[in-house]
């Protein structure tokens, strides 16, 4: 048995009860514990003399306990444990609040090591709540000579919490950093000198990686000559080895899963004739950009293969992804296949339906709209025609994934704004065809690092080029105090016949307060600021049909100003809206602000985005607003957002299919991830290594990375 798979229950001092506590925070085996890295390191190995200590600085000292004991205070049940320690240069007071058990730990004449921050008090310099370590077997009768300048070779090797470079762990539940340090130390001591290594020897050699066992030792208890800077940047040789190991295993699974899917699933390959090309060209409303031509070439090449397409199309708001989706749909329909097009909301599904129906008016293809709001009788008719094959394309919402929806021959599934759908919804729609081609689209650009991991089993197509005639949106950042001139600017735009959005954030913990503020603001704007115009309010508590009515009326210019607490539905097209004012812009994420800005600039008129912020504003808030004002490139914004927020927050939910990485960081270690992918592909291509690596993935991969059933 792999020694790393041993239960923590059998570690000294753990037992069944504490093992159950550890299990609750995700620690069951020795491996779980050892692959939970320190978050940082402190150098507690260089002792200072007491005379050299300075207030406000953390330091390690070693000395003799002169006296110690519990001191009661005037406050009931509040006790202070106090200790006086001396070295050859002076003495120092150390105190701990409400830790009377220390009376059983310390006694006079012991030698101790303390590490903590120094404070200047009315009693002089003192350490409050320091980390401590007893130096075993040294009593006062051995004298104090040489204690402060203790030689590295003489230092007690069992010191874990002080007297060395010390690992600092994040507190988890009841498990403190000090308890983790003790457990890790015990676990490492009972491991054999050699461990099974998942990395092939030639991979280790090519990547200059140390072996697994010494890496685990050094990542938790680094040698005295290790660089603190490298450790805290996760760049030590031990860190690199263990992070690479995790990424290699992760990419093995991703690459293997993709290959297995390609070999097992045979869809229906399409053909493209000159006649079909001519039919598709007739439908196009304008000339394609170079990006659009490249992407449609990639998609059609995929569709011609017998293996089902699995492609992510990412591109800026307004770069023409829907036209690409329509062209892919036409290729499928020209081949006698049916198409399902799924959008996240009814209003967006309706918009796609009306736009595509207009373009397909002259064609022989029949399409329909199916949403939760479709009347029962009409729904029955649609289901019968889909099953019989007389309907070629259905555009809809999550209503498409309901059990009773069946197709005669579904050949292509298109999913718009894929991050808004759960993994299971995507899989269910895919299962309705005999391995249909799948095209997922997003206007939230995904940084390359995340595309490699989260969508490792998808091919990625990217569109950056905007259709000709699109003007860049002017973005300005203004403090709340300049609200008057912003309203004046909105009035000028509305008088010129344009429309405006005014957006309020809705933060979960203060949703009621925020909603009340937005409702009051809508009343104030309609009665006091813009009484001559029609102002509408849209918020998340409204029923879907009410939201759709308001949004539809705004699109028809029945309202000139729309106050909204929700992120105005992604993709809803109001070409006449040219102003986007975002209230409390400092409370929004960067990608969210970029999505909001993309609601304007969709027509022929120059558009503007105004970010209003309130004091106090954090440095990070200022960075976000500055980044948005500096660039309109969604890909650059996505990279900056990832740096500011980290990958977990970037996607927002576990359902998005983010892998559970224990030691690697997608942003910090992206170069290692790319190396690991190259090595994983090469290892699986090697017949002498592939069977063992495949077996390794099959036994633990899905559970290890928390990605069961995603694809």
Explain briefly what this protein structure is.
By secondary structure, the chain is α/β, with parallel strands linked by helices. The protein has 4 domains: 3-42 and 170-233, no CATH class; 45-163, Nucleic acid-binding proteins (OB fold (Dihydrolipoamide Acetyltransferase, E2P)); 274-463, Rossmann fold, CATH 3.40.50.300; 474-631, 3-Layer(aba) Sandwich (Rossmann fold).
Descriptive account of the structure:
The structure is a single chain. By secondary structure, the chain is α/β, with parallel strands linked by helices. The chain folds into four domains: 3-42 and 170-233, no CATH class; 45-163, OB fold (Dihydrolipoamide Acetyltransferase, E2P) (Beta Barrel), CATH 2.40.50.140; 274-463, Rossmann fold (3-Layer(aba) Sandwich), CATH 3.40.50.300; 474-631, Rossmann fold (3-Layer(aba) Sandwich). It is built from 23 helices and 21 strands. It is globular and about 95 Å long. Mean pLDDT is 83; it is low at 137-157, 420-424, 648-657 and 707-711.
């Amino acid at each position: 048995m792999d020694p790393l798979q041993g239960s923590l229950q059998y570690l000294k001092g753990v037992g069944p009860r504490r093992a159950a506590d550890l299990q609750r925070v995700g620690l069951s085996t020795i491996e779980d514990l050892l692959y939970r890295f320190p978050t940082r390191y402190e150098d507690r190995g260089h002792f200072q003399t007491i005379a050299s200590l300075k207030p406000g600085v953390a330091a390690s000292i070693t000395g003799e306990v002169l006296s110690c004991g519990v001191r009661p205070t005037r406050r009931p049940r509040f006790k202070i444990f106090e200790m006086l320690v001396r070295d050859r240069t002076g003495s120092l007071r150390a105190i701990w609040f409400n830790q009377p058990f220390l009376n059983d730990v310390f006694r006079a004449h012991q030698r101790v090591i303390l590490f903590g921050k120094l404070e200047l008090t009315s009693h002089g310099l003192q350490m409050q709540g320091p980390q401590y370590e007893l130096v075993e077997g040294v009593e006062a009768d051995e004298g104090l000579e040489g204690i402060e300048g203790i030689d590295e070779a003489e230092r007690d090797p069992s010191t874990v919490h002080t007297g060395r470079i010390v690992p600092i762990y994040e507190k988890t539940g009841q498990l403190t950093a000090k308890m983790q340090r003790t457990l890790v130390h015990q676990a490492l001591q009972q491991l054999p000198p050699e461990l099974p290594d998942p990395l092939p020897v030639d991979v280790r050699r090519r990547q200059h990686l140390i072996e697994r066992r010494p890496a685990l030792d050094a990542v938790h208890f680094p040698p005295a000559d290790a660089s603190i800077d490298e450790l805290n940047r996760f760049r030590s040789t031990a860190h690199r080895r263990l992070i690479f190991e995790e990424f290699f295993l992760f990419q093995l699974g991703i690459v293997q899963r993709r290959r297995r899917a390609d070999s097992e699933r045979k869809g229906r390959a399409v053909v493209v004739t000159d006649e079909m090309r001519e039919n598709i060209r007739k439908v196009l409303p304008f000339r394609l950009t170079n990006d659009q031509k490249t992407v449609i070439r990639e998609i059609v090449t995929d569709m011609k293969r017998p293996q089902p397409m699995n492609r992510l199309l990412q591109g800026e708001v307004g770069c023409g992804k829907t036209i690409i989706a329509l062209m892919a749909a036409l290729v499928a329909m020209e081949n006698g296949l049916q198409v399902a097009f799924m959008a996240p909301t009814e209003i967006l599904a309706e918009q796609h339906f009306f736009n595509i129906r207009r373009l397909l008016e002259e064609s022989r293809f029949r399409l329909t709209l199916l949403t939760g709001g479709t009347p029962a009788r009409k729904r029955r008719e649609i289901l019968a025609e889909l099953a019989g094959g007389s309907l070629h394309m259905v555009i809809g919402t999550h209503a498409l994934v309901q059990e009773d929806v069946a197709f005669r021959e579904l050949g292509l599934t298109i999913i718009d704004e894929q991050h808004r759908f759960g993994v299971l919804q995507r899989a269910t729609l895919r299962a309705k065809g005999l391995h249909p081609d799948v095209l997922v689209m997003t206007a939230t650009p995904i940084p390359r690092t995340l595309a490699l991991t989260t969508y490792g089993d998808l091919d990625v197509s990217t569109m950056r080029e905007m259709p000709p005639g699109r003007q860049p949106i002017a973005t300005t950042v203004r403090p709340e105090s300049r609200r008057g001139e912003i309203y004046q600017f909105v009035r000028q735009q509305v008088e010129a016949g344009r429309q405006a959005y005014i957006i309020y954030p809705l933060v979960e913990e203060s949703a009621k307060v925020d909603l009340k503020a937005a409702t009051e603001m809508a009343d104030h704007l309609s009665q006091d600021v813009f009484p001559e115009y029609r102002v509408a309010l849209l918020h998340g508590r409204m029923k879907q049909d009410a939201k759709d009515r308001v949004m539809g009326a705004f699109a028809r210019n029945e309202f000139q100003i729309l106050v909204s607490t929700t992120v105005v539905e992604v993709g809803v097209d109001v070409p006449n809206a040219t102003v986007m004012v975002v209230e409390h812009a400092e409370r929004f994420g960067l990608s969210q602000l970029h999505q909001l800005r993309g609601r304007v600039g969709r027509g022929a008129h120059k558009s503007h985005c105004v970010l209003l912020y309130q004091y106090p504003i954090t440095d990070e808030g200022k960075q976000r607003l500055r980044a948005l004002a500096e660039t309109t490139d969604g890909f650059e914004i996505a990279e900056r957002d990832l740096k500011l927020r980290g990958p977990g927050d970037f996607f927002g939910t576990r359902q998005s299919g983010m892998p559970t990485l224990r030691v690697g960081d997608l942003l910090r270690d992206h170069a290692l991830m790319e190396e690991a992918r190259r090595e994983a592909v090469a290892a699986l291509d090697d017949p002498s290594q592939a069977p063992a690596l495949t077996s390794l993935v099959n036994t633990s991969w899905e559970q290890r990375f928390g990605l069961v059933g995603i694809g």
